[in-house]
Specification:
mainly beta; three-stranded antiparallel β-sheet
Amino acid sequence: IVCDSGTGAGTQTRNVWCANARDESECPGDRPADTQPCNYLACEIFRATPSAWGECEDVCAPSQQRRAVTCQGSYTGLAEHDQCDAQELAAVGLWETCGNQACEAVRWEVGVWGRCDVTCGGGSARRSVTCEIQGQATSGCVEAEKPEEVRGCNQHPCEPANWAVGAWGGCSEEGGDGVSLQERDVTCMLADGTVAADPSVCSNTMPAVVAVCGKEAGCNAQQAGAEAAADCNGRGACVSGECSCSDGYTGALCQVAPGCTGVATAHGDCCAGTVNFAGECCGGANSTTDAAGACCASGVLDACGVCDGEGAYIDILGECCAVLDAGGLCCGSGYVDDCGVCEGDGMDCVQ
């Protein structure tokens, strides 16, 4: 028989009789119970249950935050909304006012990094850092939290200075000795492309400025004795502007060693690989020279010509770097936010 209560403890009943007897006293044993309790557990209750409040849309100004409401059963958990009382569901607030706290609107704003003031030897780059409130310059920012305005750049050492030679000029009219001469410009240049104020910083031998026409330009014809011999790398004599090499050496300045099948260094040694800016041999099967003319043993140059460098881009100002911002400028720190701003806080593109 069905329990007489659906909301907690109830009672079930059944018929009990002594079969084939005139009364129950004829039945042996105890009489079975004709009732028993049922539905000990409370019946399931469905309630409208709100979730936790979501994030406030703007904590610095009057705003709103939202939450969801579901119908939850005491035993089965999440249930269909029609299991709950409609008025109870409607009474649960889905929106709440928030964001009434006062927020600091003053903050530091930074510009993009400018170009490094030197190409080597350690320089500096600058950017603008201003205290602003809603796009207007102001005061009140915390000085201790001010981002850096100047940073180091191009810390790699500069390559040594070297001689730069121009093209030979036209031959002069023959003099009394019947010899015509030609001249060329020879300048001591620094690694950054500027002329050295003191030519003595070019430590290697100065190439010839004057040569005899019709002959290979070689040693300085105006030098003599030990100076002329040094101009031919000590491997010959300078005769009328031309090195007369000895011991099998060849080349304009006797710089090529006997039997050399590669290239010669500034000291005349045979180099099977590449010769760098200073005239030294770059050893190794894969060696090459970088953008500054220095040896690169690995032979791997980045986009900026730096040996084993990380440079992947050259920006619109000609600077080399691994990361560009949205404006096509190098980002020295390597951090670009979601708005494409170097070292940004991700707020510049928030509508």
